[in-house]
Design brief:
Oligomer: heterodimer
Distance between the termini of chain A: 73 Å
Shape of chain A: globular
CATH superfamily of one domain in chain A: MetI-like
Order of helices and strands of chain A: HHEEEEHHHHHHHHHHHEHH
CATH superfamily of the largest domain in chain B: Periplasmic binding protein-like II
Structural class of chain A: mainly alpha
CATH class of one domain in chain A: Mainly Alpha
Number of helices of chain B: 19
Largest sheet of chain B: 6 strands, mixed
CATH class of the largest domain in chain B: Alpha Beta
Number of domains of chain B: 2
Strand content of chain B: 5-15%
Distance between the termini of chain B: 46 Å
Strand order of the largest sheet of chain B: 4-5-1-6-13-7
Radius of gyration of chain A: 26 Å
Largest sheet of chain A: 3 strands, antiparallel
Number of strands of chain B: 13
Chain lengths: ~325, ~475
Amino acid sequence: MASSNKHKSISYAKWGYIFILPFFIVYAAFQLYPMFSTIRDSFYEKITEGLLDLPERFVGLENYSKLFEEGDIFSYFGNTFIIWIIGFIPQIFISLLLAAWFTDIRLKIKAQGFFKVVIYLPNIIMAAAVSMLFFAIFSDIGPINEVYKNITGSDEPYQFFAHIASTRIIIAIINFIMWYGNTTILLMAAIMGVDPALYEAAEIDGASPSQTFWQITIPSIRPILIYVLVTSLIGGVQMYDIPQIITNGTGSPVRSSMTVVMYLNNQISVGKNYGKAGAISVILFIVAAVLSLLVAAFNSKDQIAENRAAKLKKKKMKGAMKI
Amino acid sequence: MTKLKRVLCGTMCLAMAGSMLTACGDDSSSSGTNVAEVPQKKEGNEESKNTIKIYVWNQEFQGLFRRYYPEYDAVKSNYDTEKHEKKDTGDDFLKDGKKVVWVVNDNQGNNYQDKLDAALKAQADSEDKVDMFLIEADYALKYVNSGYTKDLSKIGITDTDTAQMYDYTKQVATSEDGTLRAVSWQATPGLFAYRRDIAKDVLGTDDPAEVQAALSDWTKFDEVAAKMNEKGYKMLSGFDDSYRVFSNNVSKPWVDENKKIVVDDALMQWVDQTKNYTDKGYNNKTSLWTDPWAADQGPTGKVFGFFYSTWGINFTLKKNSLETPVDKGGEEKVGNGIYGQYAVCEGPAAYFWGGTWLCCAAGSDNEDTVADIMKKMTCDKDIATQITKDTQDYTNNKEAMDALAASDYASDFLGGQNHIALFASTAPNIKMDKTTAYDQGLNEAFQDAFKDYFNGNATKDEALENFYKAALEKYPTLSK
């Protein structure tokens, strides 16, 4: 009798909890707690200058109001956005093109696996290392300048990192090279998920490749496209390591390559102004959160289904009116 | 959505409530300078007592220590006494069996000071004590005027030991209560290192005295720069090359008593001069310590000279002058690159640059060993003489340096010049009374900000504005 009772009460649920416990502990210690302490710090004047810890002082929203008064943060958001968009346009274009080619049944590209690896490879290398490489390549005595001198016949090198446009473009190019492979793989997965019957039907109907691309592929992968756009935007907002290394943390020239996270890092580089840094972090958090909510909204299947249903209804109603 | 709002509200409340709790309880943080030694709450453990832990930012002192410290156990540490290099990456040992552990943190982006500060603040509660650390002139006061350095007289370094040191090296290392907190093995008078071949071509002579006469003030310096330009040479390599010559001759310190940043006229003179040189093509638009700057010092360089300090000769210039680097089998001798083609003179104004000081960390559990290292490396006349003879560095011992200055000592690298004689006359005049604890960050921010002006990306006022921005980011307690 006892044994049958025991048999009933056996529950495996606790093992489930135990197995997921490590994640939650690590998450609470290294993500959740720092997040709350950052929010807390943003309401304080909390400064450490070298060996000197100044006493903490509650200042309410002063850190925020100062940030907006100075107004620098807006120009750094602007810089970040400009650098992101310069990199994102070629990124989405090349990725779409590659994804379309790789998935095209008629092209039958050979050694696909090899190309996919090569395309993805830059993403594996540390951003800092790629930045150092580009810094050397584009330096005043680097190979690009040797070529430049040979072509133009000038003695003076072109100082890539002393001009606003060239510095921003180089940072964007590194971003592009590092991330287009990732995007290509995502888009390929999306295209391969499209019902092949649609392509067959299109072929039978005599659609040209560009027509199939624009009329079938693009509308079918729209949710993934939006996902790529928004995740890239969130990643772009947090752009840090590449411009930091390329400009040595100064955001030069004239702070035009200073991104928001670099600005944040500057607050805690020499003197540690945790209050102001906290306020910048919170603003950045809100921006990233809004963007994340956007992707969630776009991506929810219900919404897409709802949209379709609404369209259908409209069509039906139109039809009904005709009758 | 309502759920999310609730969660957000809850977290905000929590954060606020939590912040209030901690705000009340926290009264341990201190403000203002307090030079009294930080009391130790814990003693070092057995291993810490047998380990000398030294914080450094590069290998300069490491090399000197291994080569010249008499108590260093070369055999056990696997050190090659012929080639002067360590054969493996293992630990270093002293003859009494104690281990020496180097904590090397690169200086870039304040990294060294961040790591050091964290270690010093944790020292009182730590069982693994930091024994010694190195500091530079630009931020020496930060440590000297703190409770994290030991009064050296308390560990047995007497006035007699330091009697032969140049006064400025002691003055900058003396804390507000008048006690000596750090000692240096080098004195660092500034110099202008120039290329003999270019000097002959343009000025018709490579004799240091005659070149010095041609460069003795800024007006003459500018005239020579114009001549260099005519013959296709550059006077200086980059923007910051002459910075120290101006920044050392300021009339006021960087920061006044109200913690307000003061931009001295001498610094604006540097700005004007460098802008002028850049527009006229007298420099190569490089920045200090970058690859193009280093390349300008080598065989392919077309730059007349570099403002340096004593350590620059042995630590940087010699290495950069070689055609085949030492690690690729090249030798440091005449014929390899432009070895022997440099000479030094005083330049248009007296100045100093850099220098490294040794500090004994408060709470060290190896005070005796640290004191002995300091005495041998910085106070010993014979070792000082030997270091200068071997490495051409200028050591902090008046007696030893005066003797070498009067001798027939000559540097191969400098084409047979006795540069010690030049420094022996300039070193006693160095004054370091305008230093502040903020110098490093402010100097860097100033040089960086004005690059935009030199490159034509910003006006002078914009550059100054950007300097203030960067300065206040680095030191939020200062004001504009």
